[in-house]
Each structure stands twice: as C-alpha cells, then as structure tokens.
Design brief:
This protein is mainly α. The chain has a domain of 116 residues. 67% of the residues lie in helices and 0% in strands. The protein is built from 17 helices and no strands. Helix 6 runs parallel beside helix 8 and helix 12 runs parallel beside helix 13. The longest helix has 30 residues.
Length: 315
C-alpha cells in the first residue's frame, strides 16, 4: 500500500491510469487523508478533481458497508471495534471540513458524505450550518437521512429559525421522516397566507398522518393554483390512507366521502379504491352508486373494485 504522500501524488498524476489505480484503493488509506483529498476537489485539472472525488466516495462507501456488517455482527454478539473506529474516524475528518475556513465545495461534499454515514453524535455540528443560505439545503438533506429523534429535533429547530422561503423544504424533510413531533408545526404552517408554505405544511402533515386535535384550518382551496389544488386533494387522500393504516377508519371516512363526490373522474376512482380497503358494509354502500356512473372510467373502476370486494379473502 502506498504512503499518504505517494497516494496523493498518484491522485494528482498526469496519467489517468495512475489516478484510477490510486482512487481504486482509496478505501485502504488512513482516514486522515480526507482533508487533503478535499482540497484537491478545487484543483485546476478536471481529472484530478474527479480522482479526488472518487477516492472520497470509496473511503466513505467502504465504511458504510462496514457499518452494515458491524450491525450484523453486533446482533450476533461478535462486533469488531476496529470497524466502528474507522467509521468514527471518517466522520470526524468529514466534520472537520465544515468549518468556515473551508471552501463551499468542500463543505457541500462533506455534508453529502456525512448523510451516508453520520450518526446522532454528528447532528449538532451539522445543524449549526442550517442558517447558512448557501448550505442550508445540504444541511437539511443530511439531517433528513440521519436516523433518530435527535436529527428530527434538529430539523424542527431549523424550521423554527428558517426564512419563510425555505420552510417548505424543511417541512418536506419532516414529512418524509414522518416525525410525529412535527404535526403542530405543520398545522401552523397550513394557516399561512403563503400558498406554497401552507401546502407544504399540509403535505407534510399528510405524510406524518398524526391525529389532529381541535379546530383544523386547511388552505383556501379556491385561492390555490391548479397544481396546488392537485396537491391539496392528494394530501387529503394520503392523510386518510394513513388513518386507515393506523386503525382509525373513522378519521378517514369523511375525507373519502368528500373526494368521492368530486367531479373529476380520477379523484372519484382514487376514492373508490381507497374506500374499498376499509371493507365494511358502509364502504360497499358508498361504492354501489358508482356502478351506474355516467362516466365510463368511474363505472369500470367501481365494477372492478366491487368484484374484488365480493371475493372471499384468502386465508
């Protein structure tokens, strides 16, 4: 294996085959080489920049695979400390690249790589960068991918301090995480006169699917753009589906009935399919009139759904 100096010289070689050979063995190098590779991301020569980027990818992916293997060994009671130590060393070096003395390209790279291997211990250092307008997207993407309540709390903190134009992105991350603690923030966002922010709150709340207590204020449907209207109804159905999955069909029923009476055939069809999953006599009664719908698409959907509901379930 080459020394660190030899490895870095090969990464910067004029010969592309030498550069390729170097980045191919990067995972064998000490993680301490990461800062030097990061600096080469700014090299004048495109081939050197690519070699440095690929070397960094190999180092991070190698410890990512080791993390998976470590989890399996830990479950079997035979974890190897060296694997965990190497991952921690790589994370430490990547965190060192988040300082303001580093170029933006280096910090962006570090955040993207951390999104693959960081754990909750790294969350505070990552979250500190959330106010930076040039890095906030990368910060949220990174936090979104780190498992655990700590990263969800960090996202909630970022939401509270974010500019209004960025709040929809943070809400989307919380929605993807299905963070129950974010429901109140989502409901508050839905009250905004800004349609984009209000709809971001509604979409996130629908993904989370938490129960709503007290008065619910939905965005003004008539004031929405056509695209937002589509998102509005899609969110209603998504929320209703979540209620059914969580054993609360009564919370879904009014929504399904509302969508079923819409004029648009695709929404009627979506409601028919969703209602059928409830599988009660009341659900069948709601679908039955659609068997004679004047709209052929709705009628055919209802007929096929009715047939599936009529078949005895397989044991």
């Amino acid at each position: 294996m080459p020394t660190t100096e030899e490895f870095l010289a090969e990464i910067q070689s004029d010969d592309e085959d030498v550069r390729y050979a170097a980045w191919s063995i990067a995972e064998q190098m000490d993680p301490a080489v990461i800062p030097a590779l990061s600096e080469l991301l700014l090299a004048d020569e495109p081939g050197v920049r690519k070699a440095a980027a690929e070397a960094l990818n190999n180092i991070v992916h190698s410890v990512g695979k080791e993390v998976d293997a470590l989890a399996l060994r830990a479950a079997a009671g035979r974890a190897e400390a060296s694997e965990s130590d190497k991952r921690q060393a790589v994370v430490k070096e990547l965190l060192s690249l988040l300082g303001s003395e580093r170029q933006e390209a280096e910090r962006v790279m570090a955040l993207r790589q951390l999104s693959l291997i960081a754990t909750v211990d790294a969350v505070p250092a990552i979250a500190e960068l959330a106010p930076d307008r040039n890095l906030r997207e990368e910060v949220v993407f990174c936090l979104e991918r780190i498992p655990g309540k700590t990263s969800e709390d960090a996202l909630l903190g970022a939401l509270a301090n974010a500019d209004d134009d960025f709040k929809p992105r943070v809400l989307a991350a919380l929605g993807h995480r299905q963070a129950e603690e974010a429901m109140s923030a989502c409901l508050e966002a839905m009250k905004s006169p800004d349609a984009t922010l209000a709809m971001a709150g509604m979409k996130a709340a629908a993904r989370i699917g938490g129960r709503v207590g007290g008065e619910l204020r939905l965005p003004d449907y008539d004031a929405l753009s056509e695209w937002h209207k589509t998102e509005f109804t899609d969110s209603l159905l998504r929320y209703a589906d979540a209620q059914v999955e969580k054993g609360n069909p009564n919370g879904a029923w009014p929504i399904y009935r509302q969508v079923l009476e819409r004029e648009e055939e695709h929404w009627q069809c979506a409601a028919i399919v969703a209602i059928a999953k409830i599988g009660t006599a009341e659900a069948a009664a709601a679908i039955f009139p659609k068997l004679r719908s004047d709209d052929s698409t709705v009628r055919i959907t209802a007929q096929k759904t009715w047939e599936r509901m009529s078949k005895p379930s397989e044991a």
